[in-house]
Here is the input.
Amino acid sequence: MTCNAFYRFSLLCLSLICLPHCLIADNNAEHKVSRACDFVNSIGVNTHFGYYDTQYGRYEEILKPRLIELGVKHIRDGTYNADVVHKYKEMGEQGIRLLLITSSDKAVERAKSIGKMLWGVEAVNEPDGGRKPGTWEQEARQEQRRLYESIKGDSATCQLPVVGLSLANIKDSPSRLGDISRWMDYGGMHPYAAGRHPSEHWGWGMSMDDALSEARKVSGEKPLVVTECGYHNKEENPNHPGVSEEAAAIYHLHLFFTYFNEGILRSYKYEFLDLKPDCAMSDMECHFGLVRSDGSVKPSFSALKNLLALLSDTDEAFLPRPLPLQLTSGDEAPVRSTLLQKSDGSWWLALFRPVSVYDLQAHRDIGISPIPVEVRLPCRMNCRLFRPDQSQLPFASFRKKRSITVELGAELVLVELRA
Here is the structure.
């Protein structure tokens, strides 16, 4: 049977059992196939273009060239003035879109001034932060409603998405705020993983299911946007633990795939630059960046840059085609996967293991021994294997294989598949 005939046969079988997508099995879990460009567009970073007294003030020297080099398509920012708007537009010429945090009374005016590079607007950030219950809820509800009504009430801005406000305390505050989904297009949340693997910790000691359930108390069934997430590198920090730069690089790639697999529209890493020099490691807030305060890049920057380059594709509208695969791991260790397709027809399979790579008590990295993961293919295919944490170049290639075995350690592996 030819490869094309096999695909047609597979599609028929899948339709007969009423599956809406071709699914990939990984340790009894299943994931749909998605466009690679949708995954790339699910990744964003937080910036502070108007923080002139921090490293963000070094726009020409650090911020602009590094942001272009990274290749990310989305930023989130809440600063605004004429100079910042000029810089936003300059980034827009590079294909970058903005989610702007803004007050309701200025939202329409600011949206019009920024223009087409603006992707959407968001109400006040973390209105519950540092405030007692009963002092912020009504004000936050009213501000979300005013923002939504002002944006949707103007013909020049009515098509802009409005993202719901994100809460600092994602465990208790959602119940206090209540359902305000009628005044948003997307919900927002801040599931910081606090030094642990992103699959096992979604903030405030919560599991993924619990965190998503809490977020939907505010946003209902609206799609979710993670407006802040990620890791910092102040390793000794009891209340919000940090991890090493090497561990953060592994975790950050796992994080974007973990959130994407759960249907999160976009996840904005907090943040792009380390705010200020802090050699003494005294302030957690100075160590969230992908780029160090001196302009040099961290391993997380390089890993994300490589990932975005490898999965880069046009925004061409197409329906990704099915590719029945089967994954098996030798010792039945859990393996997570995401199946993507580019417009040129190639499939890209991301494989990673939900394992801890940093000891939060001893403050040291944990070595993870690789396990063999067999990928069985529906027909003979050409395959290339990549580790974005290390390089944009393949570390292995295979021709006309019906199955391949990937030695999967802690680092994410991308498998390119071509029929």
